[in-house]
Amino acid sequence: MSNRKIKQCPPWWGHFITEYLRNGQNAKRAYLKAKPKVTERTAEVESAKLLSKPDFLEQLKAAQENVAKRVGMTRDRWLQLLADVAEFDLREFLEIDPVTGDTRLVKDWKERAKGHAIESLKIRTTTLESGQVVQTVATTRDSKLKALELIGKSLQYLVEKVDVNHTFDLADAIIKARRRASGGSNGKS
């Protein structure tokens, strides 16, 4: 946060910020909770304006930092947890029985799996018609990755951006608007 002194803000900003962080950053819904007497359209417009004010954004960032501190989720810890999930290597959990040659789970696989979002591991042994024995390993991943995504969005560690490229011919739009306004004529004034 900057060294700039944070200006005293209206009390309803705190209500807005609390609801905004609680509801997954839906600004319109947060505005309606903070100011229930406004219309939906007003909430939509005014919440967008609010999210562009530097003083408000400082308050919001401070609130997000407080939440992150309270839950013990720094940006570095969040990135490390994501890396743990991403670096999953099934071979860490398996070993080959030296006598039979069968694949089996290592004894402490559950302890090792904690950081990798693994809910279960199963080895299936199938005997084919040819007599060949085939072993397959099935894994079930838990919802840790989804939880990390939601945490990242909530704390704005993960920001979704949409790039919109659109060509717009202003002259053509004006001509079409004039035609509509004059009831479908050729657009000449």
Your description of this structure?
This protein is 47% helix and 13% strand. With 189 residues, the chain is an alpha+beta fold. Among the domains are: 1-72, Terminase, small subunit, N-terminal DNA-binding domain, HTH motif (Arc Repressor Mutant, subunit A); 89-142, no CATH class. It has a two-stranded antiparallel sheet. A two-stranded antiparallel sheet has the order 3-4. Helix 1 packs across helix 2 (27-34), helix 1 packs across helix 4 and helix 2 crosses helix 3 (40-50). The radius of gyration is 28 Å and the shape is elongated.
**What's the total number of strands?**
4
Which CATH class of the domain at 1-72 is shown?
Mainly Alpha
Residue-averaged pLDDT = 80
Q: Provide a count of the helices.
A: 8
Segments where pLDDT lies below 50 for 5+ residues?
Answer: none
Any idea what the CATH superfamily of the domain at 1-72 is called?
Answer: Terminase, small subunit, N-terminal DNA-binding domain, HTH motif
Compressed to H and E, one letter per element, the order equals: HHHHHEEHEEHH
Helical/strand content category: alpha+beta
Main sheet makeup: 2 strands, antiparallel
> How much helicity do the residues have?
40-55%
**CATH topology value of the domain at 1-72:** Arc Repressor Mutant, subunit A
C-alpha termini separation: 56 Å
Rough outline: elongated
